[in-house]
Amino acid sequence: MQVLQGVEALDPSHGRLFVVIGVFDGLHLGHQYLLRELVREAARLGAIPAVLTFDHHPDEILIGAAPPLLCDPDERLERLASAGVGVTIVQTFDVALRQTPYSAFVRRISERVELAGFLMTPESAFGFERRGTPETVAALGDQLGYEVVVVPPFTLDGAPVTSSGIRAAIAKGDLETAARLLGRPVAVVGSVSRALRHTTELAFPMPVALPAPGAYVASVETPRGSLRQRQLIVGPGGVRLEPAVPALTGARLRVELRRPANPSTASAPATPAKPVKPVKPARPA
To answer: Between 175-182 and 163-171, two packed helices, what is the crossing angle to 10 degrees?
Structure first.
């Protein structure tokens, strides 16, 4: 999968693209459904499936605060590639982009690459004041020569799967529900801030979705790729692993949360981890 930094990096060599736009934080079951539809429709159109996503959550600009992450940015790219995406465009979402009309943004893409079209759901919208709806984007496509494919929204047991719903489940310590909506165990990626004899303390460069204060049975993947059974302790003093994990300060660890170690302690809402200045990571974030 090719990863491009912004629409400006597009050029004709990237081929004919069929695009879906979204944050894709978490890559939950609803996102996985969209990616399957993207790959299928791209094949029908003889195009490369492409995702246009953002380097940080748009809410940081739209409302002044971004929600805690459900998926590490590097892992998000890995999962997009595994889903069959051929090109991912990571666009900076800033005030200028917020004020860009959908038509100007679409033209910015079509001027740089052959555009086969867009995948959208009925409620999809992008561009200034969210005026880029399936209807308006399709009308522009009549002029520019691309197609808009609208697919029904994904539901599970009659209800939509949303990132906000998953965050709420995690905050309550309901890892079972969150994992069911994600389609995989809940996980966080942090770096070792202090490697002590009996405890490994973690720091997060960006806020991540953490469960309610308490102890959680977890599997830990170290830079060496080994999985070790530990407890993740979430509390007012921070986040730590016990017993300690054999990893150096600055190493990145992926922690999969399995279940509360003591279910009665996982009931209060969690406070998202505050961002800290990260120590040098073991690999680029």
So the answer is: 160
Is residue 215 within 8 A of residue 233, CB to CB? The reply is yes
Residue-level pLDDT, tens digit, the chain, 285 residues = 999 999 999 999 999 999 999 999 999 999 999 999 999 999 999 999 999 999 888 888 888 888 999 999 999 999 999 999 999 999 999 999 999 999 999 999 999 999 999 999 999 999 999 999 999 999 999 999 999 999 999 999 999 999 999 999 999 999 999 999 999 999 999 999 999 999 999 999 888 999 999 999 999 999 887 777 899 999 988 999 999 998 999 999 999 999 999 865 444 444 444 444 433 333 333
In this prediction the pTM is 0.87
What dihedral angle (degrees, nearest 10) is formed by the CA atoms of 139, 141, 142, 148? -80
DSSP annotation string for 113-135: S-EEEEEE-TT--BSGGG-B-HH
Sign of the CA dihedral running 130, 133, 139, 144: positive
User: What is the distance between the alpha carbons of residues 153 and 51, in angstroms, rounded to a whole number?
Assistant: 17
Domains of the chain with bracketed CATH = 2-156 (3.40.50.620), 163-265 (2.40.30.30)
Asked if 233 contacts 242 with a C-beta cutoff of 8 angstroms, the reply is: yes
Q: Which residues pair with 227 in a beta bridge?
A: 221
103: tokens are: 């038509």
H/E run at residue 99: none
Q: Which residues pair with 238 in a beta bridge?
A: 235
